[in-house]
């Protein structure tokens, strides 16, 4: 299967520019799950910019109705 990195980048809100996994969703998800995190794309832009990608941060946002 061909990676659609260019197409993925159109919708990627990750603000960490030096990331080598940016736009390669399968690698990004695999990395973040190993770190007990979620990828940037599940967070609203303002929450994503905090770089706190933890499950706990996501749960707080859900509880506050922000996701």
Automatic annotation (TrEMBL):
What is this protein identified as?
Answer: Cytosolic protein
List the source organism. Desulfobacter hydrogenophilus
